[in-house]
Sequence to fold (616 residues):
Amino acid sequence: MKQALSQWQNHPEGNNNLVILFSPVAQPNNVIQESLSNLESDNLLHIQSLSSQASIHDYRQITKQLTSKLDTPEIAPLTELNSLLQEVTGTEDKHKISIIPRLEWCLLRCIGGLAAIEVLRDAISHDNSCFWLIGCNSWAWEYLDKVYQISAYLNNTDPIALLDESQMQEWLEPLNTKIDLVWKADNEWLSLKPEASKKESQADQELDEVAKIKKAYYSKLTDLSQGISNIASDLWWRSLNYEQVDDESKKYTITKPKLPEMPNLIATDRYILYSLLLHSGMTLAHLKTTLETNESIVKNRTQYLLQNGVINKEQNFLSVNPAYYLQLKTLLSNNNFLTN
Amino acid sequence: MSPILLAQAENKLDPNFIINNVTLVKIIQGLIIIVIGYLALFLSEKVNYWLSEKVPNRFRLIIKQSLPLIRAIIIGITIVSLLRLFLRLSANNLLALTGTISVALGFAFKDYASSLIAGIVALFEVPYRVGDRVQIGEHYGEVISFGLRGIQLRTPSDNVVTIPHNKIWTEAISNANDGALEAQVIADFYFAHNIDLDLVMKILYQAAYTSQYTQLKLPIVVTMEETPWATHLMLKAYPMDARDENIYRTDLLKRSKQALVHCGISYPTSWSYKKS
Fold:
C-alpha cells in the first residue's frame, strides 16, 4: 500500500487505486481494516455503508448511497493514515483515500445489480484526487473483468498473502497451548509425509518426537489449505478431538487433518454454490434474485447443502464452508464455471 | 494349367473349402461369442452413460464420444471371431466371401448397407458425435446414441428420433456445438421502431452477463435487424452446458422481459405496423 500510495502521490495522473484480491472464503475485512484501523486523516473518505451487513448486495441502496457520497464526500477522521501519507510524501497531503473493503458485496448478479460497479468505475477513472483501496474476492474480480474489463480501470492488484508452514504454526500454536493440546507420539503423524521424512535434514533429525509430529501436522495443514487461513482454521478445528476427563476439564488430542467428503451435488447445487462464492455469501432472498429459479427448488437445495455442511448460515447470511472451498473450486472449474 | 492351379480353381467352387466343419461345439462357441458380444455392448453403453454423468461436464462429451468407437471395436471383434470359427479366412476365400456378401447386400439390403458404410464414414468424418446438438432435415436434438445403422436424437419435446447414417450422403447436417460443451443460443426480441436502443441493448447484455447459465469465457453479442413491423434484436450467448439450451433461452427471455417492462419499453403492435 505504501508503494502504491507513494506512486500515486508522485504521479497523481497515474494509478489511483490498489485492489487487494483474496479467496471467496477469506475474511479480508480484518486485513484491510486492521491495517487501517489506527490510521487517521482529515482526507479519508470511508464509505461506511459498504461495510454494513444490512446493505450487502442491496445494489439499489448501495448505488444510491455511493452516488450521493461521491457527490458530497463524507470525511471520516482516521489518524495514522495521515502519518502514513506524511511518511510517503514528507508533507501532509490533501488527497482523499476511499476504502471499499469488499467490492463483491456492492454487486448482485442480476439485471441492474451491477450499477454500483459502474458508478465506482466512472468515479475512479475520472477523479484522480482520490486514492481507492479496494478489497475484492478473486472470483468476483474475474467476473467483473469479463463483464466490464475492470482491470483496465483498476490495474494495480495485489493478492492477499498466503500462510506458509511456519506462519501457520505460529498462528495456531497459541490456540493449541491455550487448550492444552496433547500431541501423541504414537499416532499417524510421522507417516503424513513419508517421502519428506526420507529426506530429513540434519535439523529435522535433531527434533524431538513431538516437534516432528507438529512439523508434519502443520505441513499437511498448509498443504491442504493452500495457505488460506480460513480453510486452515476450519480443518484445524475439525481435526480436534476431546475426552471429558472430569466435569470441568477436557483433554484435547489432534488427528490427521483432512478435507471433508463432498456430498453428491446436482446442477442446481453447483449454481447455488457458485453464486455464494462469487458474492462471498448472501441471504436466501438475494440468492433467489440472482438465480431466478423456482423459489422452492432454491430453498430445498439450500437446505440440503446446509444439512451436509457445505454451506453455513449465520443470521440469515449463507456462505460456503471454507473447508469445502478447494474441492468446489476444482469441481466448478471442471464444470465450465468462471473461477480464477 | 498346372495341377496346383487346377486344384485351387476347383476349391474356389467348393463351399466346403470356405466353410469349416460345423459341429455342435462350434455352434455353442458361436452362441457364446454372440452372447459375450451382446453383453459387452450392453455393459459398455451402461458404463459409458453412468460414467459420463458422474464426471464433471468438461469430460462428459469426451466419454460419450468414445462410445461409437468402443461399439465398433466390440462388433468388429465379435464378427471376426465368428468368421474365424466358421470360415477358412484365406485371402482368396475372403475375396470370394466379400464379393458374395456385397452382391447380396447390394440387392437385398441396399439402404441398410449404405447406412452401415455411412456409419463407418461418419466415425472418421465426424459430422456428429454423441452429445452434439444437430439439425438433420426437420429434426433437431441432442445425439444420444450412435449405432451401427443410425443415430438417435432426443428432441426438445423429449421424443427420440432415429435417423439412418446414410442421410449424410444427401442431407445437410447442421451441428450446433461440434464436439464442444457449449452451443450458441439466440434469443429473439421484437420491439417498436421508436425504442431507446442503447437502453434495450444494455438490458439485453446484462441479461446475458448475469444469467447463472452463461459461459462467460465465450463472447456475448447483440445484433439488430430492421423489419417493416418491428426492430428485431438477437441476443447471442453460450450456456455453460449445451443441454441447458432451452432453459437458458427461457431465462434470458424472462429476465429481459421483466426488465424491459419495468423500463416501459414498447413492443410492436398491429397499429404501429399499419402506421409505418
Q: What stands out?
A: The first strand of chain B starts at residue 133 and ends at 136.
